[in-house]
TrEMBL record:
This is Adenylate kinase. One of its GO terms (cellular component) is cytoplasm. One of its GO terms (biological process) is AMP salvage. It is found in: Cytoplasm. Its main location: cytoplasm. One of its GO terms (molecular function) is AMP kinase activity. Catalyzes the reversible transfer of the terminal phosphate group between ATP and AMP. Plays an important role in cellular energy homeostasis and in adenine nucleotide metabolism. Consists of three domains, a large central CORE domain and two small peripheral domains, NMPbind and LID, which undergo movements during catalysis. The LID domain closes over the site of phosphoryl transfer upon ATP binding. Assembling and dissambling the active center during each catalytic cycle provides an effective means to prevent ATP hydrolysis. It comes from Devosia nanyangense. The gene is adk. Its EC number is 2.7.4.3. It catalyses: AMP + ATP = 2 ADP.
Length: 189
């Protein structure tokens, strides 16, 4: 099962991905998590990404495409994976399509998780409080910027995948377990 979770920051992609990892026994592939680890480890890639991430902009397609291509070659992805936070631009989606074709893989579904903008800002603000500001990009100003970037660069992927017939939409305003159940119904698992 190869899945994409698509949706704005704070909609619950990471939460759902972590639940589905256990239920479907496939790994979560979060480009945001991988980039944050690279920042913590002060690798050249992390150092290059930090400033861009801190202001809520997107890291280059080249960097994230490379991360994903390497990651899905690893043994634990043999039975599938859940992409969380990738692709985020049409160029990334095209790159993913090409990369999967080269690896002889296909995508099973793209799950769009929806929520209204006000809820997203307050959810991310709460996440900042709960984690004691562990994420430098979880403050209201940067969250608004990330939402703007989402609307401009990532939302077009909804139409992109709808056009390919792989898109399913679930309501991210429902309680966590209901969202999980809706995703599982959508993918027939
Ligand atoms: P996330 O944890 O998915 O919210 O990502 C946090 C930040 O990492 C984003 O605001 C971007 O700066 C960067 N990032 C994560 N995934 C991508 C991606 N697919 N393309 C570009 N930047 C990304």
């Amino acid at each position: 099962m190869r899945l994409i979770l698509l949706g704005p920051p704070g909609v619950g992609k990471g939460t759902q991905a972590k639940i589905l990892v256990d239920q479907l026994a496939i790994p979560q592939l979060s480009t945001g998590d991988i980039l944050r680890s690279a920042i913590a480890a002060k690798t050249p890639m992390g150092l290059a990404a930090k400033e861009v991430m801190d202001r809520g902009d997107l890291v280059s397609d080249e960097i994230v495409n490379g991360i994903v291509s390497e990651r899905i070659d690893q043994a634990d992805c043999a039975n599938g994976f859940i992409l969380d936070g990738f692709p985020r631009t049409v160029a990334q989606a095209d790159a993913l399509g090409t990369m999967l074709t080269h690896k002889g893989m296909t995508l099973d579904a793209v799950i769009e998780i929806t929520a209204d903008a006000g809820t997203l800002v307050s959810r991310v603000a709460n996440r900042a409080k709960e984690t004691g500001g562990a994420r430098a990009d979880d403050n209201v100003e940067v969250v608004r910027k990330r939402l703007e970037v989402y609307r401009e660069l990532t939302e077009p992927l909804v139409a992109y995948y709808r056009g390919k017939g792989t898109l399913k939409t679930v309501d991210g305003m429902a309680p966590v377990e209901e969202v999980t159940a809706a995703i599982r119904r959508a993918i027939g698992r």
